[in-house]
Design brief:
Keywords: Signal. This protein is of the alpha+beta class and about 170 residues long. The protein has one domain. Helix content is about 30%, strand content about 40%. The chain is built from 4 helices and 9 strands. The strands form 2 sheets. Strands 3-4-5-6-7-8-9 form a 7-stranded mixed β-sheet. It has a two-stranded antiparallel sheet with strand order 1-2. The longest helix has 21 residues. The protein starts with a helix and ends with a helix.
């Protein structure tokens, strides 16, 4: 009986050890990000758009855009503190940090575009920049009125492309 108990205990410890060693660690938001940004409901979903001869997709969830976690923009003083920290890194470390941040987290805020609640995303600690504007719209496609997402860029929110809920509409 004692032998079975010890074998069970050893097996349990072994499973626990390997189970925790292989689990993904959750990392707290880096570089001062505190509050998660929530995207407007009308912009959420998988959107398809045409780029060249390829159909690509852009997925927006409640807290991510194209796989990047969205956070509310930092207050100016806090932003400046983190920006200075990034600028005082060596060139190699600064490039590495900037690339990591650009691939993992963006700052975002809502705005109204012709009365429609929309949102804009920028690289985290981007300094200046126009980012990507996402505006839900209705558009005629193949003679039917359909929901679309208008992606804009530049200082004037100029149209980059329209994305649709299905691949066939994006063609």
């Amino acid at each position: 009986m004692k032998k079975k108990f010890l074998m069970g205990l050893m097996l349990g410890l072994l499973i626990l050890t390997f189970g925790t060693a292989n689990s993904k660690k959750t990392e707290a938001a880096a570089w001062g990000a505190k509050e998660v940004f929530t995207t407007p409901k009308a912009t959420r979903g998988t959107w398809y758009y045409k780029e060249g001869h390829k159909i690509k997709k852009w997925r927006i969830t409640a807290h991510t855009s194209d796989g990047r976690k969205l956070y509310k923009v930092l207050p100016e003083k806090e932003y400046d503190r983190w920006w200075n920290k990034l600028m005082h890194l060596s060139t190699k470390k600064s490039i590495k940090a900037t690339n990591h941040l650009d691939n993992t987290q963006w700052q975002a805020y809502t705005f109204k575009f012709h009365g429609i609640t929309s949102f804009n995303t920028n690289g985290w600690l981007a300094g200046a920049g126009d980012g990507v504007y996402c505006v839900p719209v209705n558009k005629y496609r193949y003679g039917k009125k359909v929901k679309a997402l208008r992606f804009g860029g530049g200082a004037g929110n100029w149209v980059m492309f329209y994305a649709y809920k299905s691949r066939s509409l994006a063609m």
